[in-house]
Amino acid sequence: MENAIYAALTRQSGLMNEMRVIANNIANANTNGFRREGVIFSEYLSATGRGTEGLSMAHARGRLLDLEQAGMTRTGGSYDLAIDGPGFFAVETAEGPRLTRAGAFLASAEGELMTAEGHRLLDEGLAPIQLPPGAAQIAIGPDGTVSADGQQIARVGLFAAPDPATMLRQGGTMFAADPATLEPAGEARIQQGFLEDSNVDPIAEISRMIEVQRAYEIGQTLLDREDRRIRDTITAMTR
Q1: Among 55, 45, 58, which residue's Cα sits nearest to residue 15?
Q2: Which of 14-18, 168-172, 226-230 has the lowest mean pLDDT?
Q3: Domain ranges of the chain
Q4: What's the N-to-C CA distance of the chain in angstroms?
Q5: How many CB atoms lie within 10 A of CB 5?
Q6: CB-based burial of residue 80 (10 Å sphere; 0-12 exposed, 13-18 middle, 19+ buried)?
Q7: Which of 132, 152, 158, 216 would bridge 185 by S-S if both were Cys, CB 3.0 to 4.6 A apart?
Q8: What is the model's pTM?
Q9: Who contacts 32 (Cβ-Cβ below 8 Å, separation ≥6)?
Q10: 105-121 pLDDT tens trace
């Protein structure tokens, strides 16, 4: 196989990877707290032999997380929380704490705040938040202070975002978190009765999908032409 085909195949592979990422972004355009992703393309050189020039190859396995603030939708729910500013909630999973911007919580039968999937919301010390039985009114202040009938009982943990390049998605809206590296998000504030929207722009994503599809078609045309050229050359040599 010639070098041109190797180079084209690496580019095609990267474009397929980007198409999957774009499709996932579009699918989650209406998912509360979803953070869009992008694909990072880079170039690396592969040796082709002593005394020859290297072969330029495409690399598109890196992903970059977009942490841009999205809009908020008023729900009026006592346990619906949106973060205004940079920061994340922490929820408890079987694999350890996870960070999320999705703030649709509910109270379990045991009085714990949790997600619809059963992940408990954690306080600033990474402990579950327990509501007192029989509380008539639950208020959550901008700093995360949780009050039941006027009595402060806990504070919702708000944690600073790690480096986006190191954040690994765990599920649709959750990201892996090392408890030892979590720090308070000093500028973040909570809005009770709101949910943050997805920060995906569907029109921009669809436009990018069209661009990627066209680029893939051009690459496929190049591969087809190279294949025909090689076949024609071999046929001519064997006559």
Answers
A1: 58
A2: 226-230
A3: 3-67+200-238, 72-196
A4: 21
A5: 14
A6: buried
A7: 158
A8: 0.82
A9: 73, 102, 103, 104, 173, 195, 196, 197, 198
A10: 999 989 999 999 999 99
Query: What DSSP line would sit under 166-209, residue for residue?
Result: G--B-SSSEEE--GGG--B-TT-EEEETEEEPP---HHHHHHHH
Task: Look up tokens 């504030």; give the residue.
Answer: 189
Q: What six digits make up the tokens of 215? A: 């680029």
User: Maximum Cα–Cα distance for the chain, whole Å?
Assistant: 93
> What is the token pair recorded at 103?
């703030």
How many whole angstroms separate alpha carbon 42 and alpha carbon 114? 40
| Cβ neighbours around 87 below 10 Å, total | 22
Counted residue by residue, the chain has a size of: 239
Residue found by looking up tokens 């198409």 in the block: 19
- Please name the residue that has the structure tokens 């050229």: 229
Residue 175, classed as helix, strand or coil, is: strand
> Residue holding tokens 């041109």?
4
